[in-house]
Amino acid sequence: MAEEIYPNLFRITIPLPDSPLKYLNSYIIKGGARNLIIDTGLNRKECKDAMMAGLAELGVELTSVDIFITHLHADHFGLLGELVTEKTRVYFNRPDTELIEHWQGFEPMIQYAANHGFPEALLRKALHQHPGFKYGTDWIPSLSILNDDDVLEIGDYRFTCVQTPGHTQGHTCLFEPEKQFLIAGDHLLEDITPNIQCWDDRTDPLKDYLASLEKVRPLAVDRVLPGHRRIFENYIGRIDELKHHHEVRVQEVLKIVARADAPLSAFSVASTMTWDIVADSWEEFPIAQKWFATGEAIAHLRYLENQGRIFRTAEDPVVCFGAANKG
Ligand SMILES: [Zn+2]
Questions:
Q1: Tens digits of per-residue pLDDT, 268-302?
Q2: How many angstroms separate the alpha carbon of residue 320 from the centre of ligand 1?
Q3: For residue 55, how far is its CA from the centre of ligand 1 (angstroms)?
Q4: Which of 19, 126, 294, 296 has the most Cβ atoms closer than 10 angstroms to its Cβ?
Q5: Using an 8 Å Cβ cutoff, are 228 and 23 in contact?
Q6: What is the reported pTM?
């Protein structure tokens, strides 16, 4: 069902079966000759059915649609290939496009996870549960790149692109300065915390994410239209909560490493951190969630490592971290 949020701006909720995120918010703007879809859903039938039903209810034909994608993840990007026609312009950001262009399959991610202590046998299983593997898209249409500060006009709306690296390297929000709302993708969510994962040692996604929270803080935003869950108004309050959440998390990871008898891998750190997931123990965690948890542990470890608060005691076969004060 399509819900009108602002004049000619609608939300369609796209179900994400088996995901703790529950659904994706896809925003549809009716702009006259051309319409805009913001984020699409997974490449699976349940998502496509919901999208097509929503568009039909709004009287929007795919041939009149352009598409803006906030970031690379399969729940935002995956259904794209099913929606584009010859006439569709697909707007996307440069850093995530480069990841697509340099994509070498899941093997480098698997090697990286194994190098951070994720048991090899579990990894293969985890991959087959990964939404990007199951419901991603193999076919990528040509992409129109939008950079930071670029303007995207559709109907009565004039958006400024705000690049907010962290959740992905090129994650981009759309800010409507006159109407004072922010289409936030997964940069700001209300009752869940955006997942900050690291899968490449050349990056420090948590540092980027915290900087991106500061970057959006000065924007005059009355209302946030996020990629998942509820639309919300507590803009500055939520930015502060998210910052605080990661400060607490960083402290927790530091403590885990400092109190351990021996240096730890990211996988062991992940198994010791507290998680907001319904499972009795780490062993009971769904495998895909273990994958995300490990990526999140790595992000926090890399952040601490770059600040010189922990250091690597081993690289091969498994990267281990120790606290700086233990030498
Ligand atoms: Zn995401």
A1: 999 999 887 777 888 888 888 898 899 999 999 99
A2: 27
A3: 23
A4: 294
A5: yes
A6: 0.94
